[in-house]
Amino acid sequence: MGRTNMAHEHRGDPLGITSAAVVLVDAHGLIKHWSAAAQNLLGYAAAEVLQQPATSLLLSEDALTSAWFGARRVGAGWEAEVTARHRAGHPLEVALRACPVRTGNGSEWLITACDSAASRKWELDQVVVRTLLEEQALAGTGPDEEPRSLWVNPRTAGMEELPPQEAPTLPPSALCARRMPSAVDVPAAPNTGLDRGQRSRRSSRRPAEPTGRALGPRSTAVAVPSSDEARERLTLINEAGQRIGTTLDLDHTVRELAEVLVPELADFAAIDLFQGGLTAKEVTGEPVTGGTLRRATNLSIHEEHPEVVVAIGEPTRYPARSPQRRCLEAGRSILDPVLAPTTWWLAEDPLRLEKLHRIGVHTHLTVPLRARGVTMGVVTLLRWENPDAFDEDDQLLVEELVARAAVCVDNARRFAREHNAALALQTSLLPPDLPDHSAVELAYRYLPTDAEAGVGGDWFDVIPLSGARVALVVGDVVGHGIHAAASMGRLRAAVQTLADLDLPPDELLAHVDDLVLRLADEAEAATDDPMVIGATCVYAVYDPISGKLNVARAGHPSPAIAHLSEPVEFPDIPAGPPLGLGGLPFESAEIAVEEGSVIALYTDGLIEASDRDVDVGFERLCFALAHPDRPLEEICDTMVRTLLPDHPHDDVAFLIARTHRLPPDRVVSWEVPSDPRAVHDVRCEAVRQLTDWGLEDLAFTTELIVSELVTNAIRHAGGPTALRLILDRSLICEVSDASNTSPHMRRSPVTDEGGRGLFLVAQVAQRWGTRYTGTGKTVWAEQPLPPGDISPRR
Q1: Cα–Cα distance for residue pair 303/263, rounded to 1 Å
Q2: If residue 141 lies in a helix (H) or strand (E), which one and from where to where?
Q3: Contact, 537 vs 581, CB < 8 A?
């Protein structure tokens, strides 16, 4: 009878199949089997529940959701608690254990259930027993006259370097330095091989039989775990601080975070960032409810990455109620088990469902990547080869690591945003393409500095001028970043405007110098930490009719000229002060250039690259420009290869131009007497020249332009007057005189007999203007050529 009572009182696992309620659910969620214990637990007879949905027994749909969130992996199955509805109508907290069963009809679920109170009581008992017998280093000795160890747990056997299966045959002296005569705690640890930092406790007592006779000494040794695990976590956090954020490159920074997490904490890590690294709620810092996530990086313990569903750079497209979306909406980490086919959010993503279950992922941890009130993305961690599910300690550690890394990611994101904005601004301010000009053949290179230094203020430009001439410009603004790019844009616009006025190079640089002074004053007034505003520039005008180059420079390197028959030349052009100093004059120089020569304008970054001596840079430039008859693109490649390292420390811009001369038979000029009767004669000469060029269609408009411009010169200007016709890609008519008075177009009243000359010229010409020379001025007008191949008649 005693044995029967003892067996009856023994409390086994309440979720064991011999004592728990047993339910079998098919692949469609319908109940196929209902045991008698199930009826005792919930009150329903089998006939009432068979072929009914299992979810109909729950108190609400929220109860199922709560169960899924709280489920934990146990072997091949899962354990959870749900709130069920008893047949009597009251709610009942029920503990479940579910295990998948493969059948010919698909995956079915074998479920055992019991009252939650009984399950928790049994779990508490197990924790106590396991703590005493397994988690601590412990050994027990028996009551023999020569006491021998009856049982040694695995941890003690490991400390003593003893195989557990041999422990029962070992004498206790192998485990204990001494045997205690009575039950007592000993503060000093015996020599049991405990790790440094652990505390040990040993007790002994003499157990007695029911009769009271002592059986012999019995002893127990217990080791309290050390703080090694805590030290390891602190070490990992410290290591992460050193490894993450070594650069300001966004891709590299997120990769560093992934390398810290895998394999130390997870078997797989994926980091997804919002498109462009920004969120729609960046200003307010509110939880994120939308936006496009893109995969920034992923890392796996396996090189082949079997768990990857989304490639780097692709949108992730997580389901609406996935842990990632819930994590972003709530602004906190989500720890989820990965349930088998009934995982509700995975039902919307069959590809991800198949992969997660095929490789056996058991837990899923998602943490928002958030810094300075901005949610930038989400970090996803998976475990499958690591048998331990993520727990709350893992969650806290990952949150700490991600929070620290998020600051580095945000720094990289902010830098990338500013760098990209500056680069886009600078690119938009540079000429999108070089103009096709008959006076020069052109090629260029613009090479921004590396990402560490930022965007600079180098620029170049090619500006068509009147009289078939062309202006070549290269400049360099002091500093880097978006402010330098903005200043460069303002200077380039100013140079273009002044070039349209046909100012001489030295006078143009003087006006630009005034502008830089104003920009510096504005910058100083606008901030407590004024920016340095300064620039250098070289401005050159090439005339294909005279074959001369007129150059002025402001603190900029002198152009290089590669002649066909002579060595490369660096002409002696007055240096001039850098722009922004003010008060100092600029001078220009005129140089004769033979046809086919190559002119190179460049910034100082080209000859000062890699901290080389400037003289070495000039020598290498001469070598690169040798043989100017080569294709210009080939010359550009040679300059880059010869003068620049892989990562130059400064922006580099250079512009090269091969000169061409306008054929002599395309330029005709006449001296015009200061007599109004000469207008008729010169008009007839112009018409005859158009006939020789095959441009009879332009005779009427050309007569009108010549008449009005020559008449104005004779009537309002003194001294000699000259007419010149130029046949280039347009027909150019120029009238020069000795006056410095600029003509103005006006709309005359109907009653006036004159004053409409320039107005008529503006109506028939494509464009017109005035430029000043050392002896007076030139008024010019351009007309487009008729369509077709126009070749001058010989």
Answers
A1: 12
A2: strand 139-141
A3: no
CB 551 within 8 A of CB 531: no
What is the separation, in whole angstroms, between the first and last Cα of the chain?
A: 136
* Cα–Cα distance, 225 to 196 (Å, whole number): 10
CA nearest to 444, candidates 643, 620, 602, 557:
602
- Two tokens, residue 219: 């002893």
Token pair, residue 296, equals 């920034």
Q: What angle do CA 539, 541, 544 make, to 5 degrees?
A: 160
Q: What is the token pair recorded at 19?
A: 């004592």
Rounded Cα–Cα distance for residues 445 and 652 (Å): 8
Smallest Cα–Cα separation from 262: which of 226, 236, 283?
A: 236
* Angle made by CA atoms 733, 735, 741, in degrees to the nearest 5: 135
- pLDDT beyond 60 at 364: yes
Strands (E), 159-252: 199-205, 218-224
**Type of residue numbered 269:** A
Q: Is the pLDDT of residue 50 over 50?
A: yes
Question: In terms of Cα–Cα distance, which of 163, 175, 179, 169 is closest to 138?
Answer: 175
- Residue 164 vs residues 143, 150, 209: alpha-carbon distances, Å: 20, 11, 28
Chain CA centroid to CA 82, Å = 45
CB atoms inside a 10 Å sphere around CB 674 = 14
Strands (E) across 225-362 are located at 268-274, 293-300, 334-337
Kindly give, in sequence order, each residue whose CB lies less than 8 Å from that of residue 211, ignoring residues fewer than 6 positions away.
Answer: none
Residue whose tokens read 């307010």: 284
Helix axes 678-693, 699-716, angle to 10 degrees: 150
Which is it for strands 598-602 and 652-659: parallel, antiparallel or unpaired? antiparallel
751, with CB counted inside 10 A (0-12, 13-18, 19+), is exposed
Average pLDDT over residues 307-319: 87
Residues 6+ apart with CB under 8 A from 514: 582
Give me the mean pLDDT over the 710-729 stretch. Answer: 88
Rounded Cα distance between 783 and 764, Å, is 8
CA pair distance 733, 736, nearest whole angstrom: 10
Name every residue whose Cβ is closer than 8 Å to that of residue 425 and which is 6 or more positions away in sequence. 482, 485, 486, 489
Q: Specify the DSSP element, H or E, that contains 695.
A: none
Cβ–Cβ < 8 Å for 87, 43: yes
Residue identified by tokens 């059948």 is: 103
The CA distance from 669 to 732, in Å, is 12
Across 66-80, 459-473, 518-532, 610-624, the highest mean pLDDT is recorded for 459-473
Q: What average pLDDT does the structure give for the chain?
A: 80
CA angle centred on 384, ends 65 and 375, rounded to 5°: 60
Give the long-range contacts of residues 62-69, CB within 8 A, separation 24 or more: 65/344, 67/96, 68/336, 68/337, 68/339, 68/343, 68/344, 69/336
Give buried/exposed letters for 193-220 (b at 16+ CB in 10 A, else e): ebeeebebbbebebeeeeeeeeeebbbb
Structure tokens at 43: 């009150």
Q: What pLDDT shows up at residue 257? A: 94
- Cβ atoms of residues 655 and 444 within 8 Å: yes
CA angle 501/506/510 to nearest 5° reads 80
Amino acid sitting at position 162 = L
Q: Which helix (H) or strand (E) holds 156?
A: helix 154-159
Least confident range of 1-15, 305-319, 665-679, 748-762: 1-15
